[in-house]
Amino acid sequence: MMDDKFIEQQGIYLLSHSVGLPLKTAKSIADEGFWQPWARGDESIWNHWLAEIERFRGQLGSLLNSDASHFCPQTTISSSVNKIIFSLTPSKHKNVILMSEEDFPSVAYALQQSQSLGYQMRYIPAALNLNDLDVWEQYLLDDVALVLVTQVQSNNGVQLPIAAITAMAAQRSIRSLVDIAQAIGIIPIDIQQWSADFIVGSSVKWLSGGPGAAFLWVNPDTIEHCKPQNVGWFSHQDPFEFDIHNFRYAKDALRFWGGTPSVYPFLVATASLEFVSQVGVKQIRQHNLKMCDRIIQVLSDDELVSPLDASCRSGTLIIHFGKKHEQIIRTLQGKGVCFDSRSKGIRMSPHIYNSEAQIDALTGLIDNSR
Ligand SMILES: Cc1ncc(COP(=O)(O)O)c(C=O)c1O
After folding, report:
1. What percentage of the chain has pLDDT greater than the value 90?
2. Distance 77 CA to ligand 1 centre (A)
3. Could you tell me the domains of the chain?
4. Ligand 1 in contact with 150 (CB < 6 A)?
5. 112 lines ligand 1 (CB under 6 A)
6. Rounded to an integer, what distance in angstroms lies between the CA atom of residue 175 and that of residue 156?
7. Residue 107 CA to ligand 1 centre (angstroms)
8. Which of 179, 198, 205, 206 should be mutated for ligand 1, with most atoms under 8 A from CB?
9. Angle between helix 325-334 and 356-368 (nearest 10)
């Protein structure tokens, strides 16, 4: 099993949709790449650190099947979204930003700032089924400039058909922005199968890579149309040119970078990305589905809020125990099961570090507390 590779769990840890557990080796790898060269007073410290960030981009490229140059390191998803919005030229008749009421609020808050540029917000109501392409057909209208599509929605555990939705948007000349925060590391992703303009994600959840190592991906056909407002010397084609009168955007996604970057979070995240690539997302997903199935078996039909169908299921189960909800929650918490609650129910996310024995202990607890 893989649980010996991760730091020891307190109880049964099922919070990978929030913060994945770190690898045991993450600290020493980051020490080696970050602290040691710094402590040596190495003259070429930035060359060294920037090479580490290049490894982060390279690992993202191999995990998601795209070129490293299309990725830009970022601190958070929301700030990436803000940079995207302020890099595009608004048009008078195509000025709607479309999203769902089930998207993550932080990303929506960032998008709402675009109203100062003349954009209008439009929301697909939470009650509509986003796995039904007719809904997208109905909402991807001529006046939509940009659509946000969240691959895995955090409140309901639904996974959306990104290839079909982004293709539909592209056919209508609508730019698409895909949020993969809850999908990367647990759902196999091949960017080449999508028609997305932008993709944003982070390392803190299923990748177990800690906070601060987010990223933005830009389609190479879209990059020339992007003129980010929020820039710094690392957005320059040649950051070390130092000509105050001559700013030129980097040719690739790094034009979205900014000033002096943080380094440490990317070292921690790269160690995790390497591990995930070695194990393979397919294998992680298979284990997740198997563990989820074991939990689903002890639930009644109306207790499972997230989808049953594996093709639109995410890595997270959303469960509501009806009248017994509070009572079962208290029992599970008392026995050291780590999960969280949202309006629709509790969220449980079995990862590769959760053993069958742990899941059996959990299902036993659920059964006995009815
Ligand atoms: C779907 C989704 N998007 C984005 C985020 C986080 O965005 P940020 O990096 O801006 O905090 C989360 C966090 O839970 C999320 O679930």
Report:
1. 95
2. 6
3. 27-276 (3.40.640.10), 281-368 (3.90.1150.10)
4. yes
5. no
6. 25
7. 7
8. 179
9. 130
- From residue 80, how far is each of 65, 106, 148, 169 by CA, in Å? 21, 11, 13, 21
176-229 tens-digit pLDDT:
999 999 999 999 999 999 999 999 999 999 999 999 999 999 999 999 999 999
Query: Is the predicted pLDDT of residue 1 greater than 80, yes or no?
Result: no
Atom of ligand 1 nearest to the CA of 103: 1
Sign of CA dihedral 117, 123, 124, 126: positive
Phi-psi map region of 83: left, alpha, beta (phi>0 left; psi -120 to 50 alpha) = alpha
